[in-house]
């Protein structure tokens, strides 16, 4: 009868946990913000040219702005892993990368990482004027509605370009590193041994953000009158044509 050598038993027993080891690196509020932010932008983009869904477009725009405000506050007073300074730190290595590239050391994975961080940082910068110009285009603000619509469209196109760049870089970096880099934004966990970087998941705060978001969008959707909004917008456009005549 053979038996497993004692020296091999611990290694065999420890292989499975090591393979499943993962660290909590992204807390629930940040993950909730990320997906609701993406959902709001996608929904607003898809309804931008529709008179029927104009009310939903405006509602999602306001929700987009509210989420941005939450993220800014959470990035200032929240835990260290959620701080906005960490996002800035991720892109601050661009100068070092450029110096290395000029010296012939082209680090493609690091370039993709820097690009991902830069795209996300710029998206948050663009989000504020995107929301403000959209609001200005919906109200009688010194007769600047048409001009604000042009500004709003510019920032919307800029935001879309940044979103697409962010997604493309995630795919590229996932291929280069041979692991799904989008998964941690779903699970909050990054594969690999070591202690959790996030000490508290704060699921209650994430649930509060989700309930507030759904409550606001649902309430605004119920209150909205798509036919009336379409009529009012049509009257505005009709007025423009009458002036031209």
Automatic annotation (TrEMBL):
Can you tell me where the transmembrane regions are? Answer: 60-77, 111-135, 155-176, 205-222
Q: Give the way it sits in the membrane.
A: Multi-pass membrane protein
Q: Which residues form the signal peptide?
A: none
InterPro entries, from UniProt?
Answer: Cyt_b561_bac/Ni-Hgenase (IPR011577), Di-haem_cyt_TM (IPR016174), Hydrogenase_cytochrome (IPR051542)
Keyword set for this entry? Cell membrane, Membrane, Transmembrane, Transmembrane helix
The main location is: membrane
Quote the protein name from its UniProt record: Cytochrome b/b6 domain-containing protein
Question: Locate the Cytochrome b561 bacterial/Ni-hydrogenase domain: which residues?
Answer: 27-188
Q: Where in the cell is it found?
A: Cell membrane
Tell me the domain of life.
Bacteria
Species in which this protein is naturally found: Pelomonas candidula
Is Phosphoprotein there in the keyword field? no
């Amino acid at each position: 009868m053979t038996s497993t050598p004692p020296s091999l038993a611990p290694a065999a027993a420890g292989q499975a946990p090591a393979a499943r080891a993962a660290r909590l690196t992204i807390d629930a509020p940040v993950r909730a913000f990320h997906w609701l932010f993406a959902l709001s932008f996608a929904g607003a983009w898809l309804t931008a040219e529709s008179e029927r869904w104009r009310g939903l477009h405006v509602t999602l725009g306001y929700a987009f702005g509210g989420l941005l405000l939450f993220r800014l506050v959470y990035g200032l007073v929240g835990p260290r892993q959620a701080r906005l300074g960490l996002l800035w730190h991720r892109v601050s290595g661009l100068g070092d990368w450029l110096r290395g590239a000029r010296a012939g050391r082209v680090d493609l994975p690091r370039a993709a990482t820097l690009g991902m961080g830069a795209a996300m940082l710029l998206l948050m910068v663009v989000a504020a004027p995107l929301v403000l110009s959209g609001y200005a285009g919906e109200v009688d603000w010194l007769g600047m509605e048409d001009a604000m619509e042009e500004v709003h469209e510019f920032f919307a196109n800029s935001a879309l370009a940044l979103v697409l760049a962010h997604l493309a870089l995630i795919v590229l970096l996932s291929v280069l590193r041979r692991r799904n880099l989008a998964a941690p934004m779903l699970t909050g966990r990054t594969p690999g041994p070591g202690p959790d970087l996030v000490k508290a998941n704060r699921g209650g705060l994430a649930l509060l953000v989700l309930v507030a978001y759904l409550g606001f969008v649902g309430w605004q959707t119920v209150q909205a009158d798509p036919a009336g909004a379409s009529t009012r917008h049509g009257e505005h456009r009709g007025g423009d044509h009458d002036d031209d005549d």
